[in-house]
């Protein structure tokens, strides 16, 4: 939050700064109280042993990835983002995550938002580059 406040002091509009966090984290209350926009992602901790809760946590992790990917595309419209960039932005470096996971999430996201996922108009594939969110985005 200190970096966001420093950006505001340097002239960046408060509305141009967007946080992404956990529903259970401290950011759920602190960020809105500071006047910044916030997207809360699903998810919960994963224990070291195999439990039913861990299976749910992995499902939650996949849902959080899809939500984070959607936020990235909305916040960076008409900019080509490579798989590596998306992994870095969504997973803080993409450690232990395969780059093909991005393709899987894009496919799932297209099925949800496109009229015909086989001929996408909203999320375009830029061959050799990555993905681009193409609609005009109006920020309030």
Blueprint of the fold:
Layout: H1 2-9, E1 18-22, H2 27-33, E2 37-41, H3 52-75, H4 83-91, H5 100-113, E3 123-126, E4 130-133
Parallel strand pairs: 1-2
Antiparallel strand pairs: 3-4
Helix pairs in contact: 3-4, 3-5
Q: Brief overview, please?
A:
This protein has 140 residues and is α+β, with helices and mostly antiparallel strands. Helices cover 44% and strands 13% of the residues. It folds into 2 domains: 1-41, no CATH class; 44-140, Arc Repressor Mutant, subunit A (Orthogonal Bundle).
- Euclidean distance between termini CA atoms: 21 Å
What name goes with the CATH superfamily of the largest domain?
A: Winged helix-like DNA-binding domain superfamily/Winged helix DNA-binding domain
Strand elements, count:
4
Number of helices in the DSSP assignment = 5
Encode the helix/strand succession as letters: HEHEHHHEE
Largest sheet: 2 strands, parallel
Q: What's the domain count?
A: 2
Anisotropy-based shape: globular
Over all CA atoms, what is the radius of gyration?
17 Å
Q: What fraction strand?
A: 5-15%
The name of the CATH architecture of the largest domain is Orthogonal Bundle
Can you list the strand order of the major beta sheet?
A: 1-2
Structural class: alpha+beta
Helix content: 40-55%
CATH class of the largest domain: Mainly Alpha
The average pLDDT score comes to: 75
Unreliable segments (pLDDT under 50, ≥5 consecutive)? none
CATH domain topology of the largest domain: Arc Repressor Mutant, subunit A
